[in-house]
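Technical appendix A lists one of the benchmark inputs used to test multi-chain prediction within the project. The record comprises two sequence entries:
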Amino acid sequence: MNIGYLGPVGTFSYQVAHRAFPEEQHTAYTTISECLDAVAANEIDVCLVPFENAIEGTVNVTLDYLYQNDVPPIQAEYILPISQNIMVNKQRSSDWQEATTVLSHPQGLAQCHDYLTKNFPHIKREAVSSTAFAAEYVSTHPDEKTLAIAPLFAAEHYDLDVVRANAQGNMHNETRFIALSNRKLAITDDPIETKTTLLLKLPDNDSGTLHTMLSTFAWRNINMSKIESRPTKTRLGQYFFHIDLDVGADNRLLDNAMVEISLLGGTVKVLGSYDVYKIK
Amino acid sequence: MNIGYLGPVGTFSYQVAHRAFPEEQHTAYTTISECLDAVAANEIDVCLVPFENAIEGTVNVTLDYLYQNDVPPIQAEYILPISQNIMVNKQRSSDWQEATTVLSHPQGLAQCHDYLTKNFPHIKREAVSSTAFAAEYVSTHPDEKTLAIAPLFAAEHYDLDVVRANAQGNMHNETRFIALSNRKLAITDDPIETKTTLLLKLPDNDSGTLHTMLSTFAWRNINMSKIESRPTKTRLGQYFFHIDLDVGADNRLLDNAMVEISLLGGTVKVLGSYDVYKIK
């Protein structure tokens, strides 16, 4: 199988792609949208993209794409622990504290916000497309006083000095990645949970009817483990809802709830019923 | 009064500060957190910060700060229509289509994503702290092939050429700004609506009880115009809820609902009951 992931080599998505599918072929994409485009067009068998970070919240690019486009179902979810580390070119190991710029993905910068504010109050924070790009830039620019924030394996890959490990503010940081595919995946690991993810649009965009819609799950004892709203991008105050339910596929109560929501005027798009795995 | 806003001169917050409080003194802050810190410390009388954009959704920095810190109540909300425009240094008016870099606030870049992808597929998109910073940079660097995405008044202020007006993808784009203050504001305009905003944390972080909590509003006919979840930043899967209700202050039914949520084990933080105004 061909596994597409959010590249380049050395990203967290790369790490998940290699740990979850070690024997398969891997293809890097430069943006989340391109990776999702590729699986929708059947150019790859599986698309692995980040969906939610414990600190920064949902990856809006992924959620908005899933709302706006037709894609294969989610077949599995992988949870990866996240650490962010400050690293520098080895030729700069002695004067790294004089750095004037720090590069990272916006989430890397956000996760190390407290460390940077305390230790580098005047440093220029520059957002780049990935933590791996930041590490590669620092490795190829020894003449610049620039730091990168990236995972440990990026330091190994690009031969950088880690000057501060675990610089992220929160020690329980994790990111969820989803695997979208038209094929059922044969996974031998034990899942930690099973869930169903759906997107709900209310009739005439009236959030006041949300309570009625949620009742269709509640009175059937279908537990909701997540709900969040996102703007539909048409006008201020119009939202769709991203809902996770603690049930798997082929659940008669869930099927009945969906029919009822439809009768009440709601629109439901099921993104998939799937198992969740933890990557160690 | 002293009105603090997210600066520098020329931002959308600047525009709201000057239109809503034309006669008052204005102080620019470089980050949303610093502006909120200042009103919490009584260094300014009113703090004006962005809270939600119709396309990009909630401004997470603002919401997370309000959840984590004690601040004066929201006294008013202002809705500003947003247009984003491509501008260039006047010395570059003839060769602007050869630009290699475009600068803007991340929301400016996101709002013009479709225009850039279609017209400048290979341009380097660089995120800076504000649209005003982008405009100022372009005005002071005529030698660089750089564009700025910023509002029209930034082009006036920094004497730039607008080469493409309304480059944002969405024509109904608006941003909500909130005014936090310990003082009641004397506003003579007619409000378009009145609402109450609160943050709700569920008992033992179980989203499954959300339906019960929302019932306390529903069976009292208190309409909910917005609900969204945000991670509490402690662990994946733990959220608080940001809820807008269509009621004002001194509402007995609302008071009863609050008491009931508390009895059910929920924690509520009321951010304010306030009027909403539209800026033309």
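The longest strand of chain A covers residues 267-278. Residues 89 and 141 of chain A are 8 Å apart (CA to CA). Comparable benchmark entries are summarised in Table A2.
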